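Technical annex B. To support the medicinal chemistry partners, we prepared a structural model of the target in complex with S-adenosylmethionine, based solely on the information shown next.
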Amino acid sequence: MTTPTERSGDAAAGSLAGHPATRFDHAVAAEVVRRLRAAGCVFAEEEAAALLSTAGTADALADMLHQRVAGRPLEHVLGWVEFAGLRLSVVPGVFVPRRRTEYLVQRAVARTGPGVTVVDLCCGSGAIGAAILSATSAAAGGSGPGWATVRHASPPRLVAADIDPTAVACARTNVAGFGASVYLGDLFEALPGELRGRVDVLVANVPYVPTGEIRWLPPEARLYEPRHALDGGADGLDVLRRIAAGAPLWLTPPGTRPGGCLLIEASRAQAPIAADVMSGAGLAPEILESAELAATVVVGTYARRR
Ligand SMILES: C[S@@+](CC[C@H](N)C(=O)[O-])C[C@H]1O[C@@H](n2cnc3c(N)ncnc32)[C@H](O)[C@@H]1O
């Protein structure tokens, strides 16, 4: 969306003030749609429906609309995001999970088995881990749309970590029902040492935007998501390289169970380089793509010891 002036936000808020929550009638809904459209929201009707269903009062609705037309990401305004069939908490300062990342979840789910250990590094809101557990735990109610759920009698153990305290707090909320642990720290340093050599599925949606391309991101990302959630260094692969280099120490070695694997989202252009990086780290790489979700995932299986 474009960033409108503060004045248009005030006008929108003013036009909605005083309507009790129970009277979000057609006229109010139409006004919300009109203000969103004027602010450049392409999916104004859908966004209006989300705002109207989330706001508890007219004042809350006016405030949310004000924030949205000022350019704040819809999900930060709502406080929730739909991801893989789940409604998850997402707060300002935390990366908003993208729809395409559901492909990373699908590929990770396909690599799970009974009782496996899954680690979600750079977990942000914890969306990936929550979705994997939802799709694999027999007790979980949710399911991922668009892929077969794999119910394991002995559900995966999930450990997640992020360097950002706000993200860690958000992730803890989202995985609370699954008995998962979320740690604060720099990549593997955050993890308990007992996980060395025991990680079956290591999944990471790392920051992978090349530094020089940050300026081309939509304002919602550039202005409202933390730089450390987006910036992957000169070619976007700095964090991926660090994870690939460290992965063999943490993954289940080949020969015990099926060797552990690392799954990372990347851009299509980055994928061949990411595959080479994984190969250099002793991981057998595979590039997977989803046309439907416009997503690329690079998988590295721990196939030989270095
Ligand atoms: C692109 S976001 C992805 C968040 C989440 N996995 C998702 O898909 O919604 C990248 C995340 O990596 C985290 N991060 C960046 N550098 C990190 C590091 N060195 N160690 C741990 N986490 C890091 C950021 O805080 C951010 O939450």
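Notes passed to the chemistry partners:
Strands lie at 80-83, 86-89, 117-121, 157-162, 181-184, 201-204, 261-266, 283-290, 295-302.
Residues 1-15, 18-22 have pLDDT under 50 and may be disordered.
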